Amino acid sequence: MAEQISIEIDGRTCEAAAGEMIIAVADREGIPIPRFCYHEKLSIAANCRMCLVEAEAGGRPFPKPVPACATPVAEGMKVQTRSAKALDAQRGTMEFLLINHPLDCPICDQGGECELQDVSMGYGEDVSRFSERKRVVKDEDLGPLIATDMTRCIHCTRCVRFGAEIAGVRELGATGRGEDMRIGTYVESAVAHELSGNVIDLCPVGALTSKPYRFTARAWELTSEEGIAPHDAVGSNLYLHIRGEQVMRVHPRDNEPVNETWISDRDRFSYEGLSSDTRLTEPLRKRADGTWEALDWQAALHLTADVLRGSDPDQIGWLMAPNATLEEAYLAQRLLRGLGGRHIDTRLRRQDFRGDRADPAVPWLGLPIAELERQQAVLVVGSDIRQEQPLLAHRLRKAVLDDAAVSFLNPYELALTHPARQLTAPPGRLSVRLAAVARALSASAEGAAGSLISGAQPAEAETRLAEELRAAGEQGRGLVLLGALAEADPDYTLLKELAYLVADAAGCRLGFLPVAANSVGAALAGAAPHLGPGAQALEAPGLDALAMITEPRQTYVLWGLSPELDLFDPSRAREALAGAAQVIGCSAFRTPDLEAACDILLPIAAFAETSGTFVNAEGRWQRFQGAVPPAGDARPGWKVLRVLGNILELDGFHYSSGKQVHDELAALCAQTRGGGAQVCDGGTQPDNARRGDYGLKQPLPAPDGLMRVGNVPIYAGDQTVRAAPALQHTPLAEPLALHLHPDTAAGLGLADGDAAEVAQGERHTVVPVVIDDAVAPGAARVPAAVPGSGVLGPAMGPIAVAKADASQLAATQMLGGQPA
Amino acid sequence: MSFRTAPLAVVHDVDKSTLLTPELRAEIDRHVGKYPPEWKQSAVMPALTLVQEHNGGWLTQDLMDQVAAYLDMPEVAVYEVATFYAMYDLEPVGRHKICVCNSISCMLGGAEALLEHVEARHGVAPGETSKDGKFTLKEFECLGACRHAPVVMVDQEYHECVTRDGIDKIISKLD
Ligand code: SF4
Ligand code: FES
Ligand code: FES
């Protein structure tokens, strides 16, 4: 702890830590000091000089005004922020800054919320003494998210420092000198980073603004509502800026333990999906000839209730998106179970459910998000973490900068912005490498894990990794994480068992990276075949998400998902849905696959249109209110379920508010706390302890051919983000393609740019080949959830690849990825 | 952490022995050796100077990228250095560089008149190269010899108290 000293600012005595900068102390005390380049989360550049103040230390005044952002405090220091000398210096700086500024506020998107505008109101003159020609800077195209007007730039370098320090990609720089200095990439390139949009907030002027929002509204026309991001499991805190009934843009809301002051581009720009023309806006019923007929809600709900009432409860399969709200998840399972049904699940992208009985009731991160950055060694098993959880990746990067050793075990090497050890193996073989780490830690076990461990031969990488984990474990700062690529693996249960063995042997904690905004909440709500509300284990589990497809049901309810993009095996899902008697789709979007599959479509409110709760990775319950009315005739999901419950005459569906639903579940969770579920409201759970043994006898046989790696690219994970156009035009939005290691490709006679036919069982399509030495040999990375991937089979599983004719490629692409 | 010490943005996974030439690498290594190992990038200026000399007096983007890769720096950090300092040229140049100081002492001492003279007499404006490719005329920041303003640097050689006749003579002597 730094020594506490006391200083005086504008005559007020302030406590400060030795070494703190004057501006930090003043900010804490609420004493305003103008600034442009200083930012709490960035290194100090002290290049704008706007923060000049007068100061004296030890009774001796500094000869010149000093920059408050770069002057450390000392005992007895006296600071004047508004003395004649300080104000004069600040006015002088302002005049210099405005010399080259175009003063084009009326046509600038930042107008009305511009730091330069605000500060110049306070410190600027109304007449400029500068009559020479102003400089003009050519704009660069930084891609579909960020608009540039570089003539307005005041060279504060916040964006440059953000790139280098936070994003970890130093793409922007200040080239040239003096009059010719400019901020840019020098070589025109689109900025491709999952956090890039934060420079829009950082830029104190209108040089970097939001391209999708540009020229659509003025700051003073907007009202601001609080929200929670609906995509990853961070649950970033948001401000939704609204005009009339429309979300115009999204900004981060500071919450240090969750998202600090950042949000990912996915959270920032996915609002565009809300006004997509693919929104479902009225209840629909399919006529016998396949055309749609609009219904009023009353009729639609009675029709739906009749379908549910008329179905054998055991024949109802309820598949729900893991970013449905806690209230929706809770009411859905109550409704289904009230009817006597059992099959409900939100774990849509998984194939191996053998561990359900032994899993911790609520697999969660295992520690508070903020503690990620304080780990000393972390092993991440099966996660493309930058794509899955951008802000958790940022926390891990901070740990690395603080000298942590971070290792990854994945089916392909990740593009990272920090040093890390990366081990790779194709799906189904990750367990072999993890067993080698366990072996290096002298872990032993029975059954499948035991036989893999005893047969393992740790190479140097695994041995070093094991040592790091053990050393960190001794400090209580070691962690093993399991991500979405592990979750989709054919041998996920074995991976989990090995991860537990490694964590136990090294004294590390074990955590899960829950896939979506409410994955943890879904378990708490009991929207899982093996869990009841409060995450209580059930004696007689229902069918899991995959089994509902492989053992087809007569009636399906699809909640908030598109079957061809959100389910593990889209082809089998299509068959199962086609064979069902009735399919009810509750969705905010109207997609071709939903239209093909469903008999009834009920429009439910999307993100920002409904109240609800998300429980994030660290078990934090975050409740939010609806900020805008739902599109068209759509209704909040929880209300739809409430009315259905009442029509079906189920007990206890007379809720008067969503809050009441929330409170009921929260009380249940508090009760079951002792009963093994170990959950609590707003807090975190004590551990991720297994409830039993996985008891696997044999590892799966080694795959004898290529294995598909169907990763879910960053902007493909859910309906809303897929409907957001700007994100879909970024370089991070991956198209369907076959990525192969050069050796694998050579063995198949394929070269970069060739066309290849990829086949899973009967299902096949033609895709372009990309040679990529990041992919593990023996793996074929063909992303899931992207347009055209719906014709394929399991996201992770055997795949056959053969050279195809380039003309076939053109044909498939013309048909939007559908096979000819 | 500052952005100067932030870990590399671009991991250059190239084989360093394929960059530049063996001689250049040896020379650059000599400069790298003067700094602590984690401050390799301190050698960027001598490295750029060496590479520029080797390339007939100017730098291409590809050469800057190779220097970045060789010193494990983000490319843009090399562009920043190369665009900041007047001694690096990013476009083809003549056989010689005539650098006229434009800073305060030389300006008062008649540097502007020198530049105008060269433009009128030889048809070469600052930043341009003579048609015969003999020389490139450049404006330079203070050359550090203000006492004998105006100062002109021709390649590596200083000429002080230069007059119009003087600069004509200098030019005529160049090959
Ligand atoms: S673009 Fe904005 S953030 Fe970047 S240096 Fe210029 S004013 Fe600062
Ligand atoms: S804020 Fe202090 S110099 Fe810019
Ligand atoms: S001003 Fe020309 S040498 Fe210094």
TrEMBL record, chain A:
<dbReference type="InterPro" id="IPR001041">
    <property type="entry name" value="2Fe-2S_ferredoxin-type"/>
</dbReference>
<feature type="domain" description="4Fe-4S Mo/W bis-MGD-type">
    <location>
        <begin position="222"/>
        <end position="278"/>
    </location>
</feature>
<keyword id="KW-0874">Quinone</keyword>
<keyword id="KW-0004">4Fe-4S</keyword>
<dbReference type="InterPro" id="IPR010228">
    <property type="entry name" value="NADH_UbQ_OxRdtase_Gsu"/>
</dbReference>
<dbReference type="InterPro" id="IPR054351">
    <property type="entry name" value="NADH_UbQ_OxRdtase_ferredoxin"/>
</dbReference>
<keyword id="KW-0411">Iron-sulfur</keyword>
<dbReference type="InterPro" id="IPR006656">
    <property type="entry name" value="Mopterin_OxRdtase"/>
</dbReference>
<dbReference type="InterPro" id="IPR036010">
    <property type="entry name" value="2Fe-2S_ferredoxin-like_sf"/>
</dbReference>
<dbReference type="Pfam" id="PF22117">
    <property type="entry name" value="Fer4_Nqo3"/>
</dbReference>
<dbReference type="Pfam" id="PF22151">
    <property type="entry name" value="Fer4_NDSU1"/>
</dbReference>
<comment type="similarity">
    <text>Belongs to the complex I 75 kDa subunit family.</text>
</comment>
<dbReference type="InterPro" id="IPR006963">
    <property type="entry name" value="Mopterin_OxRdtase_4Fe-4S_dom"/>
</dbReference>
<dbReference type="Pfam" id="PF13510">
    <property type="entry name" value="Fer2_4"/>
</dbReference>
<comment type="subunit">
    <text>Composed of 13 different subunits. Subunits NuoCD, E, F, and G constitute the peripheral sector of the complex.</text>
</comment>
<protein>
    <recommendedName>
        <fullName>NADH-quinone oxidoreductase</fullName>
        <ecNumber>7.1.1.-</ecNumber>
    </recommendedName>
</protein>
<keyword id="KW-0520">NAD</keyword>
<keyword id="KW-0479">Metal-binding</keyword>
<dbReference type="InterPro" id="IPR000283">
    <property type="entry name" value="NADH_UbQ_OxRdtase_75kDa_su_CS"/>
</dbReference>
<dbReference type="InterPro" id="IPR050123">
    <property type="entry name" value="Prok_molybdopt-oxidoreductase"/>
</dbReference>
<dbReference type="InterPro" id="IPR009010">
    <property type="entry name" value="Asp_de-COase-like_dom_sf"/>
</dbReference>
<keyword id="KW-0408">Iron</keyword>
TrEMBL record, chain B:
<dbReference type="InterPro" id="IPR002023">
    <property type="entry name" value="NuoE-like"/>
</dbReference>
<dbReference type="Pfam" id="PF01257">
    <property type="entry name" value="2Fe-2S_thioredx"/>
</dbReference>
<keyword id="KW-0411">Iron-sulfur</keyword>
<protein>
    <recommendedName>
        <fullName>NADH-quinone oxidoreductase subunit E</fullName>
    </recommendedName>
</protein>
<comment type="similarity">
    <text>Belongs to the complex I 24 kDa subunit family.</text>
</comment>
<dbReference type="InterPro" id="IPR042128">
    <property type="entry name" value="NuoE_dom"/>
</dbReference>
<dbReference type="InterPro" id="IPR041921">
    <property type="entry name" value="NuoE_N"/>
</dbReference>
<keyword id="KW-0479">Metal-binding</keyword>
<keyword id="KW-0001">2Fe-2S</keyword>
<dbReference type="InterPro" id="IPR036249">
    <property type="entry name" value="Thioredoxin-like_sf"/>
</dbReference>
<keyword id="KW-0408">Iron</keyword>
